[in-house]
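Handout, section B. The chain below has 142 residues.
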Amino acid sequence: LIRDVAPFMKRTFNLNTDFVGVVDTWGAGFVDELDYIEEAINAKTFMEGIGPTPLSGVVFSPPVVDELTTRKVLTTEWVVGERLDKSGKEDVSILCSIAMNTYLTMMLETGVLHCDPHPGNLLRTTDGKLCILDWGMITKLD
């Protein structure tokens, strides 16, 4: 429906953009986010990419339980932690710096960028590590 309206919107509002292409890209990302096998692969790809960096001991994604994961169900190990923005611990500013370094590393080194970094997806674990949740929406950079 949105794709059908996109050409009309472009003409009516004289948009200087590929509005249909934007809608198509958004739609593909939306559908991909609902495929939990892909989300599991994205989380594992992140861990493989971050492994050889200095960040490997301080940031992670929850380990996927492959035998319990399907296209419709994602199962990971439970991570005990609290939202980074709700934590009162003294190391939160350090973890925020780690998050920034992690996102720069994803963009500049690993080529797989987590595209949903809202506060609910960034946890401070009880042992002071940063856990990034929800790998359904990523972009691959060349």
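Note. Residues 33 and 136 are 4 Å apart (CA to CA). Compare this with the example in section A.
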